[in-house]
TrEMBL record:
One of its GO terms (biological process) is DNA replication. GO terms for molecular function: ATP binding; ATP hydrolysis activity; DNA binding. Residues 20-33 have a biased composition (Low complexity). The keyword Zinc does not apply. Belongs to the activator 1 small subunits family. CTF18 subfamily. Residues 20-39, 91-110, 229-250 are annotated as: Disordered. This is Chromosome transmission fidelity protein 18. Its main location: nucleus. Keywords: ATP-binding, Cell cycle, DNA replication, DNA-binding, Nucleotide-binding, Nucleus. InterPro entries: AAA+_ATPase, ATPase_AAA_core, CTF18-RFC_complex, P-loop_NTPase. It comes from the Eukaryota. GO terms for cellular component: nucleus.
């Protein structure tokens, strides 16, 4: 491993020296070379897989249909997260011109593309809080396919701060629940612009069953439960402290899930 790293370091230095010689012959300003020196020095010490990783949506080489579906699902959260109203699609005028051709939905779906059918499935049902029907996206496939890279790139492309956690490392259900609620209910404080978090749970197939149940409880948490939890804490009846204690316990469970979660696994 040491020999491989040394050979890689030497080859990287050769490539950088060739690039520097080309740029020096093309540019006549010496100040530009001084400004790029720290970046080139940091690039020499990073791995190739990090140096050439995709950073924008157009640089992704994975399946385009999967990329579009994941981006479409993530954009369905814009109303809840960013307060953007969903654009209403205008009906085509050609649909009402030929009234005799009334086919069933199955016959109409035969002429639709795979992307159109997926968009209709995703937008079919939105709950009362204008959240998408499916609260979690699951990316599955063999190692090295680019699942984690896809999740990070699309999260940044949609305006989120990608927060990654490994389900195999956090084996305790309490720690698992704390990290999920911290990522989905708190804003990012890093950087000048505060962005909402998008939680990426890697190796979800390595999490124990108790942690999966914790995730399912957070996903299926309803608004009625949150209102009951808040009201039970204020209510004083014949039971007194018992009702207040129940309200405090329920209030600790948190509120609705208002941030998207992307899970990644190798074995579906």
């Amino acid at each position: 491993r040491r020999h491989v790293l040394e050979a890689s370091q030497q080859l990287t230095e050769i490539i950088n020296s060739c690039l520097e010689s080309e740029t020096s012959t093309q540019s006549s300003e010496p100040s530009g070379e001084a400004e790029l020196a720290p970046e080139e020095e940091s690039a020499q010490h990073c791995l190739w897989v990090d140096k050439f990783t995709p950073r924008r949506y157009v640089e992704l080489l994975s399946d385009d249909y999967t990329n579009r579906c994941l981006l479409k699902w993530l954009k369905l959260w814009d109303t809840v997260v960013f307060g953007k109203e969903k654009a209403v699609k205008k009906a085509k005028p050609s649909t009402g011109v030929h009234p005799p051709f009334n086919h069933s939905k199955e016959q109409q779906n035969k002429w639709k593309t795979k992307v159109q059918l997926t968009e209709e499935i995703l937008e079919a049902e939105l709950d009362q809080h204008k959240r998408p029907k499916y609260k979690v996206a699951l990316l599955c496939g063999p190692p090295g396919l680019g699942k984690t890279t896809l999740a990070h790139v699309i999260a940044r492309h949609a305006g989120y701060n990608a927060v990654e956690m490994n389900a195999s490392d956090d084996r305790s259900p309490e720690v698992f629940k704390t990290r999920i609620e911290a990522a989905t209910q708190m804003k990012s404080v890093l950087g000048a612009n505060e962005k909402p978090n998008c939680l990426i749970i890697d190796e979800i197939d390595g999490a124990p069953a108790a942690s999966i149940n914790v995730l399912l409880k957070i996903i299926h948490r309803k608004d009625a439960e949150c209102e009951t939890a808040a009201g039970a804490g204020r209510k004083k009846d014949a039971r007194g402290e018992t009702a207040a204690g129940a309200g405090r316990r329920r209030r600790h469970e948190g509120g609705l899930l208002l941030r998207p979660i992307i899970c990644i696994c190798n074995d579906q």
